[in-house]
Amino acid sequence: MALQWEQVLVHSTDPMSLGQWWADALGWVVVHSSPDEFEIRPEPDRMPGLDFVRLDEAKKSKSRLHLDFRPDDQDAEVARLVAHGARRVDIGQGDRPWVVLADPEGNEFCVLSQGTA
């Protein structure tokens, strides 16, 4: 049996807005857009993608799944994402070499340093 990873689903109260935020943050392209679903990918036919799907319930606690990103320059990328609307969050990570941020709907993600394993 062979499986291909197609996408990660992200529940959102405003899929179009949050999906566009992530498309802009990552430099990805929109491959599907409707009021209830907004899908982005690195390139039109390159997977996996992120698919933002409407859920009319706000996020209530720490995410059980989050994305990690490894930039060339952690400080510059954190500054860019914060200027883009992300915010720093504390989920109990303590003094670690990565930075935890949250998107506009509160979904956590990490910006790793070059040395983080």
What does this structure look like?
It comes from Terrabacter ginsenosidimutans. This is VOC family protein. With 117 residues, this protein is α/β, with parallel strands linked by helices. The protein has 2 domains: 8-55, 2,3-Dihydroxybiphenyl 1,2-Dioxygenase, domain 1; 64-117, 2,3-Dihydroxybiphenyl 1,2-Dioxygenase, domain 1. The chain contains 2 helices and 8 strands.
Summary?
By secondary structure, this protein is α/β, with parallel strands linked by helices.
Summarize this structure as a short list of keywords or feature phrases.
single chain; 117 residues; alpha/beta; 2,3-Dihydroxybiphenyl 1,2-Dioxygenase, domain 1; 2 domains; four-stranded mixed sheet; 8 strands; 31% strand; Glyoxalase_6; VOC_core; Glyas_Bleomycin-R_OHBP_Dase
CATH classification class of the largest domain: Alpha Beta
Largest sheet: 4 strands, mixed
The CATH architecture of the largest domain is: Roll
Under CATH, the topology of the largest domain is which?
A: 2,3-Dihydroxybiphenyl 1,2-Dioxygenase, domain 1
Q: Can you tell me the residue ranges where pLDDT is under 50 for at least 5 consecutive residues?
A: none
Strand content: 25-35%
Oligomeric state as shown: single chain
Radius of gyration: 15 Å
The overall average pLDDT, rounded, is 91
Distance between the ends:
30 Å
Please report the number of helical segments.
2
The total beta strand count reads: 8
- CATH superfamily grouping of the largest domain: 2,3-Dihydroxybiphenyl 1,2-Dioxygenase, domain 1
Number of domains: 2
Shape: globular
Widest sheet: strand order? 1-4-3-2
Protein name: VOC family protein
Organism: Terrabacter ginsenosidimutans
InterPro entries: Glyas_Bleomycin-R_OHBP_Dase, Glyoxalase_6, VOC_core
